[in-house]
Amino acid sequence: MTEQRIGVAVVGLGGAVATTAVAGVELLRLGMRDLSGLPLADRRDLVPYEALVFGGWDLAPDDLAKAAHLHRVVEPAQLDTVAGPLQAIKPWPAVADPAWCRNAAGANVVPVGPLRDRVAHLREDLRRFRTGQQLERVVVVNLASTEARPDPATPVLAGLAAFETGLDRDDPAITPGLLYAYAALREGCPYVNFTPSLGADVPALRELAERDRVPVAGKDGKTGQTLVKTVLAPAFRSRALAVEGWYSTNILGNRDGQILDDPSSLASKLDTKGSVLDEILGYPVDDHVVRIDYYRPRGDAKEAWDNIDLIGFLGQRMQMKVDFLCRDSILAAPLVLELVRLVAEAARRGEGGPQEQLGYFFKAPMTRDGGPAQHALHAQEQALLRWLDAA
Amino acid sequence: MTEQRIGVAVVGLGGAVATTAVAGVELLRLGMRDLSGLPLADRRDLVPYEALVFGGWDLAPDDLAKAAHLHRVVEPAQLDTVAGPLQAIKPWPAVADPAWCRNAAGANVVPVGPLRDRVAHLREDLRRFRTGQQLERVVVVNLASTEARPDPATPVLAGLAAFETGLDRDDPAITPGLLYAYAALREGCPYVNFTPSLGADVPALRELAERDRVPVAGKDGKTGQTLVKTVLAPAFRSRALAVEGWYSTNILGNRDGQILDDPSSLASKLDTKGSVLDEILGYPVDDHVVRIDYYRPRGDAKEAWDNIDLIGFLGQRMQMKVDFLCRDSILAAPLVLELVRLVAEAARRGEGGPQEQLGYFFKAPMTRDGGPAQHALHAQEQALLRWLDAA
Amino acid sequence: MTEQRIGVAVVGLGGAVATTAVAGVELLRLGMRDLSGLPLADRRDLVPYEALVFGGWDLAPDDLAKAAHLHRVVEPAQLDTVAGPLQAIKPWPAVADPAWCRNAAGANVVPVGPLRDRVAHLREDLRRFRTGQQLERVVVVNLASTEARPDPATPVLAGLAAFETGLDRDDPAITPGLLYAYAALREGCPYVNFTPSLGADVPALRELAERDRVPVAGKDGKTGQTLVKTVLAPAFRSRALAVEGWYSTNILGNRDGQILDDPSSLASKLDTKGSVLDEILGYPVDDHVVRIDYYRPRGDAKEAWDNIDLIGFLGQRMQMKVDFLCRDSILAAPLVLELVRLVAEAARRGEGGPQEQLGYFFKAPMTRDGGPAQHALHAQEQALLRWLDAA
Amino acid sequence: MTEQRIGVAVVGLGGAVATTAVAGVELLRLGMRDLSGLPLADRRDLVPYEALVFGGWDLAPDDLAKAAHLHRVVEPAQLDTVAGPLQAIKPWPAVADPAWCRNAAGANVVPVGPLRDRVAHLREDLRRFRTGQQLERVVVVNLASTEARPDPATPVLAGLAAFETGLDRDDPAITPGLLYAYAALREGCPYVNFTPSLGADVPALRELAERDRVPVAGKDGKTGQTLVKTVLAPAFRSRALAVEGWYSTNILGNRDGQILDDPSSLASKLDTKGSVLDEILGYPVDDHVVRIDYYRPRGDAKEAWDNIDLIGFLGQRMQMKVDFLCRDSILAAPLVLELVRLVAEAARRGEGGPQEQLGYFFKAPMTRDGGPAQHALHAQEQALLRWLDAA
User: Fold this and answer.
1) Residue D10: which residues within 8 A CB-CB, separation 6 or more?
2) How many whole angstroms separate alpha carbon C385 and alpha carbon A244?
3) B23 vs A contacts (CB less than 8 Å)
4) What is the average pLDDT value for chain C, to the nearest integer?
5) Confidence band (pLDDT; 50, 70, 90) for A254?
6) Where exactly are the transmembrane stretches of this chain (chains A, B, C, D) (predicted)?
7) Strand order through the sheet with B303-311
8) Closest to C193 in 3D by CA, of C272, C275, C119
9) DSSP label at D221?
10) Distance from D285 to chain C by nearest Cα, in Å?
11) Residues A79, A68: contact at Cβ < 8 Å?
C-alpha cells in the first residue's frame, strides 16, 4: 500500500478546516507522534494519512501557508515546520454564486458562464489533478461555507434526467454546491459533504451515485454540540429520564460564524441540527431551542452551552448544563481525513451510493433508502466498525 | 403473574432512597401514569412493580410516612396520597456497629450480642417476613449508610470456611453489612448492594452465593456524576480525544453526605468511583480528582460539577464543563426497583452468583470472575437487554 | 404613621409580579418574619409595607387568588394562608390595543373609544379607588406586558401641548401605556414604570410631571442578568480588565417570555439592556450580544447565562461564565414594594419629576436632565441612601 | 520624577508572579501600549512603572529569562523581546527552612546559621542592592510560596522586644518569612506581603513598622475567586438576598498549587479566604466551603468555580454559578506593580505602619488598629482613590 497516492480535492481549500487538515498531514509526514483526534489511527487496512495529496478550489487565492496563518488555528511553531509544502499549494479558481452564499466573497473565481461550461471546467480541474499528480484516485470533499438551500421540492432536483435538463437550461435552483457534487460524481470521484449544504443529498445526485457506483457521504460534520447531544440523549433515553426541554446556544467567531450570520445559511444549518434529538429519544421535544451566534472574541474556538431539563421518577425535575469550550477546526479536520480514507476504501470495495455506515461522522447522515438515520454515537461507531471488519 | 408477591427487605428502610422507592410503588398501585426514571417499565416479562411488598431494618424507628416526610424528597401532595400504606410500614430493629459507620446513629437497634446471634436474628426476620406476608420470594437490598471498609486482605474474608470460623470467634473484621449479606444468602434471598460498602463483594460471600446458587448484584448505584462519566468517556475514547485531566466535585446535603463527612466512609466511596475512567479510556488519567463535600443547602438535591481537559488534533487543548443538578434519591429509587425485579428474574431462572449483566446499574460492577468490568453505559445496557431477551 | 393608607394602582394587576407583591404584603400583615429580598426593610422613615392597599387593571378578569395560583410563583401553602384577601381583589377592566402588544389578550377590557374617553375612564378609576378605600395617596405602577415602542421622534410625544392635541385627534402613536401614565400624572399620582415600555419617559410626560410636581420613576426593573452586569462590570473597570466581549442569553417561560417572543416587544426590551455596559466601562464593547428566548420548562424561573471575555496584563485572555438560576417575580416584587414606598416619600417631600435617585432599581434609569445615567449598582445604592438620609 | 529609580527586592523573584511583573515592566520600557490589568495606569502622581528596578531572592538559581520560560505565563514572543534584561537578573541566595514550607526546595540557599546572622545577611543584600543600583528607595515584596503559620499566640510574636529576644535565642517560631519582613523594616524598606504567610502582620512587626514609620501592606493578593466574592457579596447584601451557602472550589496547577497540596500551607491560605463573606454580609454563612485543589492540566491558568445559594422574597431559593477561567500571575503581577508604586508614595509622604487604604489589593487587609477590614471591592476602591487624591 506504500506506493498509493490518493488525491483530495477540497471545495473551500483555503478554509480553517481544510488548512488544518493539510497541515496535519504534513506534520504526520514529518513524524508527528501525537495521533489525538484521529479515531481510526490504528486501522492499517485504510490508506495511510501520508498517502493523501491535497488540491482544491477557493474564492481566496492565498496559498495554504498564508491561509492557515490567517485562521490562527494551527500553532505558529507547527506552521513554521510545514511552511514549505503549504506554500506550494495554491487553490484553483472557484465557481461561486452570491445568490446562494451572501457573506462569502473572493477574487479567485471562474468567470461566470453557462452551467454546462462550469461543470466542464470543474471536471477538467479534477482530471488535471489526477494526471498531474499521478493519483490513483481522487476524493472530493465539500468544506465550503454553508449555502442557502433551494426548495427541495423543486422538480429539477427530483431525478437525474430533470437535473441534466436543468443544467442545459441554466436552471436557477442549481447551486454551485450541486455543480461540484455533480462534477465529482461524473468523474467517478467519491464525494464527501462535511457542510450543511445539500451537496449530493438530493434525489437527482443520489440516483447518479447509485447508477455509477460512486460512494457519497454526508452531511454536516458532527463535531461539537451535536456530538454531545448524540452522546447524552441516548443515556437519558436509557435511564428513562424524560427530556422536557433542551436549550442549546453556540458562539463562534470564525468565517463559518460570519457566514451563519446570514439567515438563509443559518436556516440550512439549524435544519441539520434539529431532528437529532427527537429521533434518538423516540418522542418529540417541543422545547428544543438551538441558537448559533456570531461572536468574534471566540475566533475559531467555538463554545457550546447546553441546558437540559429532565423529568425523573415521580415527575421530579432535574437539570444538566454542559459548556463545551472546543476548537471547531481541530475537531473537524481529523474527521475529514478519516472520511477520505473511508470513502476511498468504499470505492476500492466497489460500494457506491450513500455510505450509511459513515453516519458516525455526520449531524444529518445519509441513509441508503433516504429514511431516518441512527444518531446515537455509540451505535454509529459499532456500525462503522462492523463495516470495517467485514472487509 | 398477577398473584405473585415479592418481598423486598431493605437494609436502611427509613432512608431517602428506600422511602422514595416505597412511595413510588404505592403511587403506581394507585394508578400513577408517569413512568419516568424506570428504565424497564415496558418489560412485561419481569414481575410488575405492584407485586413488591416492602419491609426491612433501620436504626430509626419512624414509620415510613414520617421518615419520607423528613427526607423532603417526595412531594407533599404525593406523600399525602400514600400516607396510609406508608404509616403501616415500620422498620425492624437494626444490627449496628459504630466502629464501622461513625456518623450513623439511632435508637432502633438489636441489643449487641455474639455475631452468630445477630445472624440468627436477621435470618429470623427474613423468615417471619416471608411467611407473615405470604411472599413467594424475598430480595434483600442494601441501602444503608456507607460503612468503613475492612482490610480486604483480612484472611477472614478470603473464603467461606474462614468467614464462618470468624463468625464463631466474633472476628472484629466482620462488619454489620457483611452480616446482612451472609444472612440473606443463607436464607436463599437474592442480594443487591446499592451502596459502596463491601456487601457480598468479598471472596467468602461470593463463594457462598455460587455454592447455593443465590443471585448477588452490586455495588454502589450509578446515578449521578459517575453515570455522566461513563457516558462521556466512551465518546471521548471513540473520537480519540485524549483526556488530560478530569476534575469532579460533588456537593450534597442529605444524610448520605453527612455520613461521607467521615473520612473512612468517604474512602469507601471514592474507591468505587476511581477506576471507572481509566478502564473505559484504556490509559491512566493521572489527573483524575474526585471530591465529595457535605453542603447542607443542597439537601437531597445533589450537584455534580465536572471539568474535563481534552487534547485533540495537533495537540490542541479543549475543555468541557458539566453541571448536573440532580436529585439523588429520585435517580436511585427507580433503579432499586428494577434491580429487585431483575434479581428475582435471575432467581426464577436459577442463575446464582454475581450477576454480571446488571453492571448497568453500578459504579463498581461485580463480575463473574472478579476481573475488570465493562463501564461504558451503552455497552452495559446492551448486555442487560441481551440477557433479558435470552429468557 | 400607623394610620396611613397608600393605594397602589397596578397596570397588569393579575400578572406574576403584581400577585407576588400583593401576596407578600398580605403575608407580612399576617406576621411573616422573613424579610429577604426587601432592600429597605429596616427603613422606619418610609411607610410600612402593611400600609399598602392594592387595586388596578388587568386584561384577565380573574381575582388575585386565582391569578396567583396560575402563575405558580408563590408557594401553595403560602397562597392558602392569604387566599381570603387575594380573592377579594378583582382587576378593573383594562385599556388595551393589540396594535401595541400583540401577544397579550384578555376579556376584561374597556370597550374601545376615543382616547379622551379612555383617559377619563382611567382617571375615574383612580378617583374611585382613592375615595372608596379612603387612601391618603395613590401610586400607579406599570407592570403590564412590554409594549411595542412608537417612533420616539414622533412630534406628538415631543411636548405636552402636542401630546394633548394628539389626544384630541386620537393620534395612533399614543399607546395604552402612555394613556395610563398621563392619567396617573393628571390625577397627581406618583408613577413607577417597572417595564421596558415607554411609560412616562417621553418629553411630553416628563414635562407634565415637572409642571405638576408629580414624582415619576423608571424604567425596566433591574432584577436578573442586568443586575449582575452592573455589579461585575464596575469591578472589571476597577481592575482594568478590558472587556473584549460579553455574550448574554436568557431563557424564561412565563407570560413575560411569551410576550417577548413578539419581535416588536423584544426590541423594546433589548433597547433598555444595551447601553448599560458601555456606559459603565467608558468604552464601547463591540461584541456585546444579548439574547432572550422563550423556553417553557423554565416557567417563571428565569435562567441567565453570561460569558465574558476579558483581557488582562500583557494582553492575555481570560473568561468568566455566570449562570443565574433565578426567579423573575421573586426578584421583582419586593423592588416594586420599595419603589412604591419611595415615590410616596418623594411626594411627601414635594419632589416631582424624574426621581434620579431611584436609578438603583432600573435597567434604564430616568435622569433629571435626560442625560446618561449612573449604572454601577454600588454607586446607585449610595445615591439612594444619601437621598434617604437627607430627609 | 523622571530620574527616580525605585528598587523592588522580591522574596521569590523566580516565581511566576515576579517574572511576569519584571517582564511586564521591561515590555513597558520598550513601549508596550496595552495597559490592561494595571488599575492605576493613569495616575501620573505615582512613580512610573519604568522607574522600577528588580532584584531579590529565590531558592532556584535560574536567571529570570529561564525562570519565566519555565512558568509558561508570558507569551514566548514577548519573552524573546525582553530576554536580554531578564537574563541579566539572577536571584540572590534565599533564606529557607523546610520546617515551614515543605513543598518548596532549591539549591540557591544561604547556608543555615543563627537567626541573627541570617538577618544581617538579608540586610546586607538590601544595602548592596540600593547602593549598587543607585536606588532612591527599595521596596520589599513577598511573593514566596505560602509558609505554614506559627501559633499566633506564641509570645515571641506578641511584641518587638520579645521578638528581638527570640532572634537572639533562635526561637523556632520565627519563620523565614518573618525574618525577611524584619530585615526590610530595619532597613527602612516599605514592605508588601502579597502571600497568605504572616509577613509583617504580627504585633511585633507592626510595632516596629509604626515605630520606624515604615509603610507595610498585606496580606494575600485578591485576584481570583475572592475578588469575585467581594464584588458579588455586597450586591447580594444590597438587594437583601440572603446567602444560605457558598461553595467555592479552585483548581490550579502551578507551583503555588503544588505548595498548597501541603495541608499546613493550605491552612494559611484558607484562613485568609474565610472571613471575607461574613464580614461583608453582616451575618455568618454557616455553609461556606472553600476548596483548593492541585490539578496539573490547568498550569498557571487557575479556574475558580463558585456555587451560591440565595434566599429571596417569600423565602424562595435561587442559585448562581460562577466559573472564572483566569490566569493567576496575569491577575497578580500588575497589582504587585501598583502596590510598589503606592507604598513608595506612602513612604514619600512619611506615612508609616499598616497602609489601610491598600486593602483594595488584599484578601485579608491589614487595618491600622488590627480590627475588621472593609472587604467590599467598590468601598476599598473609593478609600484608595480618596487617599490618592488627598496628596
Assistant:
1) D18, D54, D55, D56, D57, D140, D141, D142, D143
2) 45
3) 314
4) 92
5) confident
6) 6-28
7) A287-294, A242-252, A303-311, A317-325, B317-325, B303-311, B242-252, B287-294
8) C272
9) B
10) 15
11) yes
Q: Is D239 close to C311, i.e. CB distance below 8 A?
A: no
Tell me the CATH number for domain B225-325.
Answer: 3.30.360.10
Domain ranges of chain A: 6-221+330-389, 225-325
Dump the DSSP string for B330-342. Answer: HHHHHHHHHHHHH
Global pTM reads: 0.94
Those residues with Cβ within 8 angstroms of residue A19's Cβ, 6 or more apart along the chain or in another chain: A13, A64, A67, A68, A71, A73, A74, A86
Beta carbons of A269 and C271 less than 8 angstroms apart: no
Of C78, C311, C327, the CB nearest to D312: C327
Q: Residue B255 and residue B71: Cα distance in Å, rounded? A: 9
Q: Is C77 buried (19+), middle (13-18) or exposed (0-12) by CB count in 10 A? A: exposed
Average pLDDT over residues D185-202: 95
- Name the CATH superfamily for D6-221+330-389: NAD(P)-binding Rossmann-like Domain (3.40.50.720)
* Residue in B323, B324, B377 closest to A238 by CB: B377
SS3 for C247? Answer: strand
Query: Is D72 in the B-facing interface, judged by CB distances under 8 Å?
Result: no
Cell of C326: 433565578
Q: Which residues of B touch D307 (CB under 8 A)?
A: 251, 303, 305
What residues in B contact D297, CB-CB < 8 Å?
A: 244-245, 287, 309, 317
Q: Name the CATH topology of D225-327.
A: Dihydrodipicolinate Reductase; domain 2 (3.30.360)
Answer whether D240 sits within 8 Å of C27, measured CB to CB: no
Q: Which chains touch B (3 or more CB pairs under 8 A)?
A: A, D
Interface predicted TM-score (ipTM) of this complex, two decimals: 0.94
pLDDT band at A149 (very low <50, low <70, confident <90, very high): confident
Burial class (CB in 10 A: 0-12, 13-18, 19+), B233: buried
DSSP β-ladder status, C242-252 and C303-311: antiparallel
Chain B positions touching A231 (Cβ under 8 A) are: 231-232, 235
Considering only CB atoms, which chain D residues are within 8 Å of B245? 295-298
The Cα–Cα gap between C207 and C354 comes to: 10
Contact B247 D247 (CB under 8 A): no
Residue from the list C303, C309, C323 with its beta carbon closest to the beta carbon of A297 = C309
Helix H or strand E segment including A232: helix A225-238
d(CA A163, CA A174): 8
**Which residue blocks in C30-75 are alpha helix, DSSP H?**
64-71
Contact B314 A35 (CB under 8 A): no
Q: Is D345 helix (H, G, I), strand (E, B) or coil?
A: helix
DSSP assignment string, D233-245 = HHHHHHTT-EEEE
Angle, helices C176-186/C203-211, rounded to nearest 10 degrees? 10
Task: Kindly list the residues from chain C whose CB atom is less than 8 angstroms away from the CB atom of residue A297.
Answer: 244-245, 287, 309, 317
- Residue B48: all three cell numbers together: 410488575
Top-confidence residue, C100 or A287: A287
Q: Which residues of B touch A318 (CB under 8 A)?
A: 324-327, 330-331
Predicted local distance difference test score (pLDDT) of residue C14: 96
Q: C226 to each of B59, C323, C377, how far by Cα in Å?
A: 50, 13, 10
Asked if the Cβ–Cβ distance from B245 to D321 is below 8 Å, we say no
Nearest CA in chain C to A295: C287
Q: Which residues contact A134 (CB under 8 A, 6 or more apart)?
A: A5
Nearest CA of chain A to the CA of C385: how many Å? 39
Q: What is the mean pLDDT of each run of 10 residues along chain B (391 residues)?
A: 83 96 97 94 95 96 96 94 97 81 71 90 97 96 89 89 96 93 98 94 95 96 93 97 95 75 65 79 92 89 95 97 95 98 97 97 93 94 96 76
